[in-house]
Each structure stands twice: as structure tokens, then as C-alpha cells.
Protein 1
Amino acid sequence: MSLIKAFPGLRPVSGRAAEVAAPPYDVVSAEEARALVKGRPWSFLHISRPEVDLPRGTDPYAPEVYTKAAENLQGMRDEGILVQDTQPCFYVYRLTMGTHVQTGLVAAASVEAYDRDRIKKHEFTRPVKEDDRVRQIEALNAQTGPVFLVYRSHAEVNDILAGVAKGAPTVDITADDEVRHELWVINDADLIGTLIRAFEGMEALYVADGHHRSAAASRVAAKRRAANPNHTGEEEYNYFLSVIFPHDQMQILDYNRVIRDLNGLDASEFLERLQDRFELTPADQPVKPGQAGEFGMYLDHKWYRLRLHPDRIPTDDPVRRLDVSLLADNLIEPLLGISDPRRDDRIDFIGGIRGLGELERRVNSGEMRIAFALYPTGMEELMAVADAGEVMPPKSTWFEPKLADGLVSHLLD
């Protein structure tokens, strides 16, 4: 079984991609999704967030939600909005956000490689979210949300993708957030074979985003494999929808923290205590950290620059040396008493795309007491954690730009 393979994608018919493309299902709330689908009957949110077509307050995990998703997908196929390619293809997908450009490959990735950890993970999954994705895949008999994978930059693959992207794209749209999405179709058998062989020579791929989707695909594949006496390994359920980018084109933004209180300390006592571990410098403007081990802190309408004492940065532990771990181990847990950020409602997380102004807003509103701005996790750090078989702390990475849902789906029949 190859690491990746081509597949006949289900795509918007020519000229309809702008009507179909939608943000990923997990970056918009139900109410935001309802607003986005107004006047857009073919938005892919009708499939990825089908509760928009059900009464407000509907449980997003209710059986009727998955039934509605299947109805909507079939409806878009019946109306000719979504059409399946007649032969297996790869697709080149380019994202442009301002001056940042990244070019990757849409492919079906091997579940077996995922199960054997050749496709490496770096996060735990939550059962309720994993179950949700299993039910979605089974209801649709398709994978509609791509898993965001990364390969260590490979000159031959990069050159092939860049060469394909010199031609006129099949899809060229700019979303409401000003991110440009372009898609090219690769249906040449020789070129497909060259790409398969190049990826087969890679030691591993890495899940950047989409741990619940990939875990769900693995569960669905295991169930179908067990139920199929004629299983060969080449069935579509043995692969999952992915977009694979070179690691050196990734853009990871900061993932910042806001906390509800000072754990019973007053501000002066808190500032005094943290100086045992950090160098503290007042700042007259918002602090965006410029290097690892440096943090911005906003408290009582004032910004501070924190620099962790170097002897507190481990050199031999890929997880403990992450900035998110350094802040947790040296401040958030010992001073603020938060030991389980997955479950403690005193802490919240703010993606860097919202800017430092959002940190100020959350604190100034009185909702939160203190905010921390972090230096972004690097791709090399992520891959080092995955290579070590370790797991990163929650909310360690925020990738931008986001992939669009609906441009290519993978049918399992």
C-alpha cells in the first residue's frame, strides 16, 4: 500500500467553486455558520455544519444532523453543483495570504501508514469530537474535511508542484478573509506515478491539523475492513483526504493565553513572585515576542516583557522546551494554579490571527484578569515532538491560512 494515492475527487463544477467553498467546520460557531449561509444555498457549510438547516438549538451531534448532511451532499450532486472526476487525480492547492504563499498536494493518504505511525501525530484527540467525525464520514460515505499534512521539504516534489502551478488554475477564488485559493488538476499518469514514488521515498508525513479527522478515518477503515471478506487494501476507505505541504512553507502563528484571575494573589505579589523565574521589563506598547523564551504579559492596562531565565529552558526534551510548556511550567501552573488547561475554565486560548488587541480587549472587559502573548511554535519543533512519539500541550499551534472545505472531497465507494 503506497503512502499516498490519486483519487477521483468530488469537486464544484466549473464556475461554481466560489459559491461552494467554505471555512473549515471547526473554525466557525453554529451562529456564525448560519450567518455565512444566508443567500448561499450551495455553501459547503450546509454539509459541514448541517445544523444551519435545522431549528436553532439543535444538538450538533444529533442523528438528524448527520442525516441532513447526507441529504445536502446528495442534493448538491443531483443539482450538478458537485461532480466527481472520471479518473484518479492529484490536485495542486495553493494558498496565498498577503505575502505568504504555500503550495501543496491534495492526495489520499494511507490509513495503514497512519496506524503504523509513518504519518505522525502530535496531539491527543477528544472522544466526542472523534466520534462526531466518524458519524459524519459514515453518513456521507465520504471525507469532506481534508487533513492538513506536512512533508519535510523535498526538492523534486516542490519543483513538480511549482511547475504545475505555472499553468492556468482550474479554481481561482478569494475568500471573504482575503485568502486566495487556487487549484490545479493532475491527471497525467506518468506525473502521478512520479509523485507517488517521491512520497514513497519519504520517511514520514506529519499531521499539522486534523487529528480528529485522521483518527476518525482510521476507525471507519478498521470497521469496513472487518466487514469486508474481500478486502484488498486498495479500497477508498483505506485512505483519507489530505492536503500535504512542505514544512518550510508553513506559517504558524502564536497561540496566546488569557486567564480569569491571579489565583488569590494581588498584582504586586504576583509580579514579585514571577521574577524568581523571569526577567521582567515594563513596556510602553504591546509586546509581541521576538524569540523563544520571551513572552508578552498584559495586566492592569500595562504591558510587560518577560524573559525566562536561560537555566530554566531544558535542552533535551522536545516537549518541555516548547514555549507553551515553558510558560505553563514556570508561571501558569506554579503561580496561577492551572495544571490541566484542557479542562480548567479559568484559561482560554486566542489564535494569533486575532492580534494582541484581542488580548487587551478580553482583559479590559473584566472577563479576564491577565493575558500572555507567546512566540509561535516552529515546524521543526512540531516534527521533533512527533518524531519522539510525544504529544504537544493543548493549543500549541495556530496555522494560517486555513484550508477551504468543499474544493475537493473523497468518496469512499
Protein 2
Amino acid sequence: MIKLKKAIILASSMFLSLTSYAQAKDVTIYGVSSESGAFANFGKQGSKGLKLAVDAADDAAGMKFNYSIIDSESNAGKAARKVKAAISKSDARYFIGSTLSSTALAVGKEVDKAGGIYINGSGADEITGTQCNKAMFRWSAPTYGAVNASLIPVLDLHPEIKRVYTITPDYVFGEAMLNNAKIILKKRGIELVGNSYHSLKEKEFSGYLSQAMATKADLLLVLNFGSLATNTLLQADSFGMKDKMQILLVWSSGLDHFRTLTPKVAEGIYFGSQYWHEDESPANKAFVALSREKLKETPNYPMAHYYQMTKLLIDSMNATKSADPDAIRKHLEGLEYDGLTGREFINAENHQVEKYFYLLQGKKASEMKDPDNYANIISKAKYFLPANETGCKM
């Protein structure tokens, strides 16, 4: 009899929870972004994209959308604690974004425990691989896709490349990038002549660049990100390295990087990018127009990244007419939609969004058609492992 009463109470509790989700009038979407720390610029740009998506939606299916920004401080432990606190103090169930892969993995565990939804754009393969869970979805291509979609076409364009030097951040994202690069180089019979690891606080790269030049490498493969990548390329330019070897930055922040580097530095360098504002897809044209109208600026990658992830959530609530995480999860799994890079698809088996990744090459200033026309699109491709090969078990 006691067991029966407990079952009735549990069923009633679940019914009330589902009812409250279905009847929700206000929904808060929490943005996890590096508002301070080493990647603050990326985080602040991303938050603009989240806010733009929420403001554009206004309300959906009778629900009013709000947003709240959680500063991850570019620190996985702090981000996880803040997310856990938000969950315990309120009905927080919807989370967007991160900068570091370590942050995404830590936050994903907390959101999964709470039965929520977490869409991020970090790169480590583990996110939709060995550490996947039901709560986590990823919009950006993982390191596997980024390295394949950028490195392979550069090697095809430059068959003279026989020796490669890599510069790698010493954490989970960097290690994944390096491992994927090694696989491609080995298949091509290209020698990895050296690698330099660096911390996330590194600012001085001249020693690493000197080592790269000493090896007489044909390609400098830059595997870091954000301000770390900016400093690497600026210092490489001061060394005149573009005259000595090809340079590829695998994971750029797109337009934001070009604006910081200027055409003088970026000219001729190859950039891998998750997003480029000149893509001709209808969804992207609408997004660029919205950003220019509301923010008076052309959107960059972090803005696009957070905007698309937030829009996925809001569109799903519209479609299901619900704020129930289980209903949203089921709607997202297997969803194909018009995204910022073209047709995008969410793999139901590991929650990876299968989208395009770009290879860009910096233009000369004299070739720019407008102030934001910094690069040519060299290629646009999708590289994703089958879900059963990623190690994901939900």
C-alpha cells in the first residue's frame, strides 16, 4: 500500500511538472559565455547573438522569452557551479553556448542531471562522442570536421607541402585538433616535423614560431583559437612567415579575426570557419539583414553561433507549443532545417548538428568589394563520423 501511494505521488508530481511546462508563460534561456577571462571578446559577441534571437522571437506559442547571461569566466569549474546554482534556484532548464570545450563538457553534465537542454558550439569530439548525453546538442562541427574540411583542401591546393609544424593549446580541444591533423598527415605521407604546446594564458609565440621556421616546414598549422590565434598570426606576420610557408588557422572566429588582423596580415592566409556572413543561404541572408538592422553591424561567427542555437530552441517551442524539455528534445532529434550554413541536420543518435564548414583565404585590401569582404570562400564541406563511430552511448 505504501509503495502504491509513493507511485501515485510520483506520477502526480510528474504530471504537474509536465503541465507546468506546457502552460509556461515565461521561459528564460541562459547563455553560458566568457564575459571575462581570456576569451571575453568571443563571449560578449556570442551574447549579442543570443539576445538578438530572443528579441526577434518576442514570444512563441503564448510564451514570453527572456535571457540571462552566466559568465563562465573562461573556467570550466566556475561555469559548472554557476549553472548548477541557476538550476537549483529556479526552473532553469535551457542553456546555450560555451567557449571552451572543457566548459561545455562540465556544463553538459549538470544540465543532463536536471533533465534540461544544452546546445553548445565547442569543438572537442567527446561532446557528441564518448561524453555525450541526452541533454547536450552541438551546433558547430567538431574538431574532426573542422580539421578535415580545412586541412584536406589546403593540401590538395598545395601538393608541394611535405613538412608541417603545429602550434597547439594544451587542453582537450587542442589535443583533439592535433590528433585529427596527425591522422590526415599520416594518410598523405606528410611529415609532422614538430609541435609546440602552449597554455591558455600564452601571449608570446615568437619562440614557437622560430622553432617552426628552423624545421623548414612547408605549412604552419595553427590549432589554437580566439586571441591566442590572433597573437600567433600577428607575430608570424612580423617574422615574415607568409613568404616562407603556407599558414592555416583551422578554427578561426571568422569576420572577427579578419577585422583584428587587417587585410595586410590576413592576405593569403587560410582560415577554417564555422560561419561566414556571405553565405547565400536564405536563412543566413535574413540573419545578416536582421543584425544590420538591429545592431548596425555585420554578424561574425560567435554572434551567428549563439543566434542559431537560441533560434533552434525557440523554433522548437513554437513547433511543439511547449516548454517541456522532453518534447523539445524529441523534436530536435532528427530535425532538418534551413540554417545559417544551408540545410542543417541534427543526428538523433549523438545530437550533432551536421552543417557546413568553410575554408577561407584572406584577400588583398584592393580586392575587397565592401568593408566586410575580407576573404574568398575556397570550399564548403561537411565531414562527420557516423554516430556509431564516435563512441556516443546515450
